Each structure stands twice: as structure tokens, then as C-alpha cells.
């Protein structure tokens, strides 16, 4: 079996990591993989020898030529299936390229952004099958009219091993310039509006008077960086909240956090939450999209209504006040990740879909 994977993201964020896990797992099972990605994309080096990498110009939704370039690649490589892993034009133009070449096509849907029913009816004709990374996203598609027999959930996974080690607390504090007695809340997300950084800033502004040892680290990069820096400064929180940037060595340090906050407005599943649970960190996140599947309420963390700063503040206060509860939730989260979010299960789920699609096509 030969699969052409299309991933249009340039940076090695959560979605791209999932694609790499799938490619590596498929290669270990004897599947041939070809990866189409943008020029100089981080994932190109991440997949190592598990795939033949073909770098293409990918200009997003407006890049009509992407369909022609992908069709050329499909004709050259002759894959059994084209698997589209992202949006940014790869979904539409990749679907059209597969249709033009008569190649079976699978789409992975990683976000729960709503689409109009007419868009779903038109666009999803391009795909033989749709894989969602959470049940929440699958329900959104069903509500928008996608046929149940055409979609299934295969949850994202996490390689727990890099996060299972104990973190040297003193080294963690030194690495990020924090006082030894600090209680540290982290947020691991792109600096974009829907992730909800502004809610955490508002909550911290309320909490700082009663928790002078509270410190917050924002991990990630994105277009909101300057805006967030200004908001933090205007709120007088420059000594409390720090933008720590994108860290390739995050597995080394993630377990040093006392709490992970992720008050997103919408999210497909939240790979950073799975990683935090693997590291034994309790989580506060929104009851939105697939997030309730990543975090079990009152077991591995606390769920709050999206955009509810008062609820976020109250939940932070609850965990800040109770080190025993933080430890209990962190241990429960790690056990849950090891039991329910394995890479092997995700790879086998994708492989089962490929076999189903090929059988239906009579291949």
C-alpha cells in the first residue's frame, strides 16, 4: 500500500506532529509513504526515512495552482490513497487533484469550525472518507449533513515517553527565570485569537493580589505576540506573565508546570493537553469542541464554559489552593493518556480506514 500524505503547515505544531506519528507508524507496518508539504516545512526533516518528501509551493486557499501541482505529483507517484491532513487550501485543492486523477481520497478533519450545510454537501463529495480527531468534530459534521457512513473518529495520540520523567524543579525555575517559590501556570498554544490567551490575562489580573507567587508562561508563537505583550503591559502584569516562545525542548520542561490552562473558544482536541497530562500536569480548559475528550472533568482537570473568565478564575483559585488536588489530577491524567491515547491505536485506526476505502473501490 502506498499513501500520499498532504500537510500544508510550515511549522511543527500539534497537527503536523500527528501526521509524523502516522507516517512513522505506517512505515513500521510496511506501508510506503510520500509526504507533500510546503518548501522548508519543519515536518520534512521530522519524518526522517519514513517517507519520501516532496516539497511544493503551497499558497493557501487562494492558490488554485496547488491543485495542478498536487495532481502532477499524484500522477508521478501513483499512490493507492491520497490522505489530506490539513486545511490552508490542501483540503479543497488536494481533493480536486485526487478527483482529477481518479485516486481515492481521505480527509482528516482537525478543527471544529462550523461550515454551512451547502459547503459540506459540495466540498465533501471530493472525499471517499473523513477521519475526525475527536467525537466532537464528528458530531459537528453529522449536524451539518455529512452521511454517518462516511465519517469516523480516530483520536489524536501522544508519544507519552518523553513526558514521563521527573523535572528538576530548581533547574526549571532557573531556565525560565522564576523565583524558587513560584506557582507556575503554563499555556501551550499558537498565539492566535481562538486559543483564549486574553481570558487568562484577565483572570491573572484578578488573582495576582491574592497569589503574589503566581507566575504564567505562554509557550508558542503567532501573529498576536505584539498585541499580547501590550495587553500584559497595560494590565501591569509584565512581572507575572512571560512569553516564553516556541520551545523544541518542551518535553524536557512541561512537567515543571503546576497547572496548564487552555481556555480556548474552540479546539479539535488539543494535543498540548494530552502532552501535559502525560507529564502529570492538571489542566483547566473549555467545554468546547473535542476538549472534554482530552480532559476528564474533575478527574484529570477542570472544564469551564468557553469565554467565562469568572469560571476560569475560580478554577485557577481551586487548584492554586490545593497542591494535593493538583497532584491527584496530574496522576490521573497520566494514567488516562497511557490507557486511551496511544500512537499505535491512532495508526491502526487510520490504516483501517484506508483498507475500507480501497475495498469499496475494489482495489
From TrEMBL:
One of its GO terms (molecular function) is glycosyltransferase activity. Residues 172-335 form the Glycosyl transferase family domain. Transmembrane segments: none annotated. The keyword Nucleus does not apply. Keywords: Transferase. InterPro entries: Glyco_trans_1, Glyco_trans_4-like_N. The keyword Acetylation does not apply. Residues 14-160 form the Glycosyltransferase subfamily 4-like N-terminal domain. This is Glycosyl transferase. It comes from Oxalicibacterium solurbis.
